[in-house]
Amino acid sequence: MYCFCYITLKIDETNTDIRKGLGVYDYIQGILEKIKHAGIFYGLSFTVSRTNFDTLTDELFMNKLITSGCQLFFFVDYIPVKEGTEDNVITDEQRSALAIILDSYRSKFPSLFVSFPGDEEAFGGCLSAGQGFIHISAEGDLEPCPFAPYSDTNLNNSSLKEALKSELFNKIRQNRAELSETNGGCALWKKRYWVESLIKSE
């Protein structure tokens, strides 16, 4: 049985609760313990920022998580969706180091390691809008990805199959060359004003 827990952690209890809400850290730990005892394959997703980079890439930390049963790891670059948080973005040096570290972990540990958006380059660029993944908001809006909170369709009013054919998604897929960012950063974030224009032009 497969279970993927999409959990954005800042590792310690204080920072996790500040970002996600009081008590979230303890709640997550309890869920992971239950999953482990049930023998379910599970994974974790980390938001990698400039300040938590060293902690997240520490080999002892990684070994502890693998020993506890985690087998799939998503390392997601922090994207400054909120204006004024750009200082949290990892540096170019950290981004290069992350690629090297994850390559090393792939040979050392019996687990899966994925870097986002870093690994997208190997697949030819941005995989948003159903080209590899999508995002569904808490309100049911179908969005190209978690870092592009734009939508022209809602799953409360449409099936997923139909929503994937939306004008916004079609325009993004038809203009993939616009999202050919190859510097490791998020192409949709860098082209966010273009994505916004697609909504306005409908």
Task: Give an overview of the whole structure.
The protein has helices at 13-20, 24-38, 53-56, 59-67, 92-108, 160-163, 167-174, 187-190, 192-200; strands at 8-9, 42-48, 70-77, 112-116, 135-136, 142-143. It is α/β, with parallel strands linked by helices and 202 residues long. The strands form 2 sheets. Strands 1-2-3-4 form a 4-stranded parallel β-sheet. It has a two-stranded antiparallel sheet with strand order 5-6. The radius of gyration is 18 Å and the shape is globular. Mean pLDDT is 81; it is low at 1-10.
Main beta-sheet strand count, sense and barrel state: 4 strands, parallel
| Helical proportion, percent range | 25-40%
Calculate the mean pLDDT score and round it: 81
Taking the alpha carbons of the first and last residues, their distance comes to 42 Å
Task: Offer a few descriptive terms.
globular; two-stranded antiparallel ribbon; 202 residues
Describe how the helices and strands are arranged.
Blueprint: E1 8-9, H1 13-20, H2 24-38, E2 42-48, H3 53-56, H4 59-67, E3 70-77, H5 92-108, E4 112-116, E5 135-136, E6 142-143, H6 160-163, H7 167-174, H8 187-190, H9 192-200
Parallel strand pairs: 1-2, 2-3, 3-4
Antiparallel strand pairs: 5-6
